């Protein structure tokens, strides 16, 4: 079997703060690159923007909150559990909304923004949040869709009317299908901007738990049950190592 090599543009150096702790280092690449892309390259968030971060207790959500705080934006975190929102607050969310306990979370967003709505929405939920996101968006706001946890379908007869009235921008994005040139630029910019903040402790990875590769099914089950706060790590072990 031939070996598979990573393109040099898509890899990054190991920050010295992670040396000796590869589990923490493993929580950086895809999670933080995704969050960075959503905020800077797609959502074009600016200092002072109110940014609604759905699924804020996920690895991407907690990374996004830290990036937004460093940018000078105002992260508003949503999740369906108090535990996840405690973590979101600890990592820099200005406000939190438990969407299980506050069904009218759009009203809460409007209240927090004095009726204006969110300048940027980071949305991995999709279909079930479509109308609510459109209503929560500020005029000339940017809504970034990067997942479909809430399904592909939406029963939203007035969706386009709401979005048009807001002059809103809805953009869908994935990272995996991007070109190597794009990924290379993203990695280089991320290393330049974010690595100093890992080194000085401003940015922190959040690892929920680690599974051996042989237990990947258990890791997926945990994720599908929405039981993790932060990143789930799969550890590839050498033959001589014991399982965790």
Describe the overall structure.
The protein is an alpha/beta fold and about 240 residues long. The chain has a domain at about 30-170: NAD(P)-binding Rossmann-like Domain (Rossmann fold), CATH 3.40.50.720. Helices cover about 40% and strands about 20% of the residues. The chain has helices at about 20-25, 30-40, 60-70, 80-90, 105-110, 130-135, 160-165, 180-200, 215-225; strands at about 50-55, 75-80, 95-100, 120-125, 135-145, 170, 205-210, 230-235. α6 (about 130-135) links the parallel β4 and β5 (about 135-145). α2 (about 30-40) crosses α3.
Kindly report the name of the CATH homologous superfamily of the domain at 29-172. NAD(P)-binding Rossmann-like Domain
By CATH, the architecture of the domain at 29-172 is named 3-Layer(aba) Sandwich
How can the largest sheet be summarized? 6 strands, parallel
**Low-confidence parts:** none
CATH topology of the domain at 29-172: Rossmann fold
- Count, helices: 9
CA distance, first residue to last residue = 29 Å
Structural class: alpha/beta
Tell how many strands the DSSP assignment holds: 8
CATH C-level name of the domain at 29-172 = Alpha Beta
Rg from alpha-carbon coordinates? 19 Å
